[in-house]
Amino acid sequence: MDELLHSLTTEQPNANSNDIDRMDTLSILKIMNQEDKRVAYAVEEKLEQIAMAVDQIVERIKRGGRLLYFGAGTSGRLGILDAAECPPTFGTPPEMVQGVMAGGSLGAFEVAREDIEDYKEEGIADVSRKEVTSLDCVVGISASGRAPYVLGVLEEAKRRGAFTVSISCNDRALIDNIADININVVVGPEVIMGSTRLKAGTAQKMILNMISTATMVKLGKVYKNLMVDVRPKNKKLIERAKRIIMLATDVPYEEAEKYFELSNGNAKVAIVMIKAGVDCQTACRLLEKNEGFVSKAIEEGMVYENR
Question: Considering 85, 239, 255, 299, which one is annotated as catalytic?
Answer without folding.
Answer: 85
